[in-house]
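User: Fold this one for me? It's Diguanylate cyclase (GGDEF) domain-containing protein.
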Amino acid sequence: MTPVRPRVVDEPPSGTVLGPGGPENRVAALLLAVLLVTGGLTGLVNLALDGVVRDGVVRTTYGVTMAACLLAAVPLVVRRRVGVWQTFGLVLLGDLVYVVVALCIEDPVRYATPLVLLFPSVVAAWFLVPWMLAVHMAVTPVAVVVAMQHSYDGVGGLAVQAAISAGMLDLVAVGVSLLRRREQRLLAATEALSQHDPLTGLANRRYLVEQVPRLWRQARREGQRVAALVIDLDHFKLVNDRHGHAAGDAVLQAVAGVLADTVRPSDVLARLGGEELVVLGLVGDPGEAAHLAERLRLAVCAARSAHGHAVTASIGVALTRPGDGEDAGGALWRLVDRADAAMYAAKQGGRDRVATFAPPPPPSPRRAPAAELLNPPTVPCPRLPDVSRTESG
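Assistant: Here's what I get for Diguanylate cyclase (GGDEF) domain-containing protein.
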């Protein structure tokens, strides 16, 4: 696993438009409903005008088609949610409605120009995935030819009209689609930058907070504990002072890479700031959390920047069992504070080691320490030249 990088989305997911149930989805559903209602009501007005709609069965077919437009809007208004397949069906329905309207009125050139297809074209370009848009673009010239075939005496005039009208409609659809994809990429990049640290590519504080409710729900559901591991790089200030901030940045990037490779896929690894990082994950018992922390400590020991600079890490571990109705946000920072206290105990114990937070026992003449140190490594990790254990960091 490598550090998390901003993810760019080129197209909406195949099952939804703009995310199910989200505010954008509701807007899309209501927009489509408005277009259907507007088209249906406009079409019904034509029934009241003399000389627009042909008489007989054709007139009934026209009225039924307009009523179908109005009925198609009802589920969108009620559910306020629309899927990509439903949108695709509505776009094709719009193409079919145009053909029916053109065949039912007396003068299609005057009352049913191909410009009517602009609405389904824009909807298809904005909301549909590329292959669905391609289907609509292929259907557009066919719809224009079928709708306008009785309005021209010769094949040449019909072909020119179809080529110009369908070509312009498809050109508009392509332009809107490109604009939409561009907007999606920019939005995805902006979201990624707002949730990830630009130097290391790891998640940032905001992303960590966003993931907490999910972790708390999962822990309650599976009967597990949430473990917080606070990782602080030892003597990191000396790297910046002796070798420059560029070297310090390179060390941070190297550490981020090995940590991302070491944590489990379900864990959340984030940079809180400076040289302090945190890992949130679900564990069954304290031993599992301590084992993960030790693996992370060894991973940091093995990390090297491109110029060979290295650091060690002091890691504090704290666990909690989420309760029903608990405020996950507040519980997160209480948990991180306990892990932070354990991390400082690890530093006071000599650095390059793991400490777990132990709740203080009831008051007694002799107070127990707030953190319990795990056994330090048997083989010391390599250190930077001339770095004293007594210095801060």
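One thing worth pointing out: The CA atoms of residues 348 and 390 lie 10 Å apart.
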